[in-house]
Amino acid sequence: QLQLQESGPGLVKPSETLSLTCTGSGDSINSGGYYWGWIRQSPGKGLEWIGSVYYNGRTYYNPSLNSRATISIDTSKNHFSLNLTSMTAADTAMYYCARRRWGYMDVWGKGTTVIVSS
Amino acid sequence: DIVMTQSPATLSVSPGESATLSCRASQSVANLLAWYQQRPGQAPRLLIYGASTRATGVPARFSGSGSGTEFTLTISSLQSEDFAIYYCQQYSNWPPLTFGGGTKVDI
């Protein structure tokens, strides 16, 4: 059964780029029919979809992020990644990776906390 | 973007009672709607997709209904582990995928 695990720095300075990786275990992420994506949740707030990547590398992003997000996939390493540029305090959040089947997320990682502070 | 509005923001119920949560879309999403449960300190968990299909392992006391712009999640005979925040999410018109603001079910 697929499990996902986020990894990356817990603290990022303002204006820097956040880099997170989501590694799959128990199954391959190189399977058609699934998208692999990122969702975040600011403290005490709801869920915000960041974007998704298909197994073939095609990407989709939330326009609200103004092209700051880049998601890539490396099926040989069974992982996918998120880069988010120009970080500000407003980007402080719990970041989740998830598998997307059709349009809904059926497998989630446990999440990783990212704080933006100097 | 399609705006998802959930009501009420908080629902207070007693164990054993039922709870009815609402989700409204700013435009029709057909039946392309999912519900998630998020317990404190945990990641969201998929409960319902296609507006009414329970995900694998989800107890039968959870049921979803609706289509178009109005949707309902009903939890019958609430158990202690059901006290959580529930989110709806549309996947009809994307990007972006959009979530409702959540309904907290508490005691």
How would you summarize what this structure contains?
With 118 residues, chain A is mostly beta strands. Chain A is built from no helices and eleven strands. The model of chain A has no long low-confidence stretch (mean pLDDT 95).
Q: What can you tell me about this protein's structure?
A:
By secondary structure, chain A is mostly beta strands. In chain A, strands 2, 4, 5, 6, 9, 10 and 11 form a seven-stranded mixed β-sheet that branches. The model of chain A has no long low-confidence stretch (mean pLDDT 95). Chain A is built from no helices and eleven strands. Chain B has strands at 4-7, 10-12, 19-25, 33-38, 45-49, 53-54, 62-67, 70-75, 85-90, 98-99, 103-106. Chain B is an all-beta fold and 107 residues long. Classes of the chains: A mainly beta (118), B mainly beta (107). The A-B interface holds A 39, 46-49, 51, 60-64, 96, 102-106, 108-111 and B 32, 34, 36, 42-46, 49, 55, 87, 89-92, 94-102.
What would the keywords be for this entry?
heterodimer; A: 118 residues; mainly beta; four-stranded antiparallel beta sheet; 11 strands; B: 107 residues; seven-stranded mixed beta sheet
Distance between the termini of chain A: 39 Å
User: Percent range for helical residues of chain B?
Assistant: under 10%
Based on secondary structure, the structural category of chain A is: mainly beta
Query: How many helices of chain B?
Result: 0
What is the mean pLDDT of chain A? Answer: 95
Radius of gyration of chain B: 13 Å
Shape, per Cα inertia axes of chain A: globular
Oligomer: heterodimer
Largest sheet properties of chain B:
7 strands, mixed
Low-confidence spans of chain A: pLDDT under 50, at least 5 residues?
none
Percent strand of chain B: over 45%
Question: Into which percentage range does the β-strand content of chain A fall?
Answer: over 45%
Principal-axis shape of chain B = globular
DSSP strand tally of chain B: 11
Structural class of chain B: mainly beta
Query: What's the main sheet of chain A like?
Result: 7 strands, mixed
The share of residues in helices of chain A is under 10%
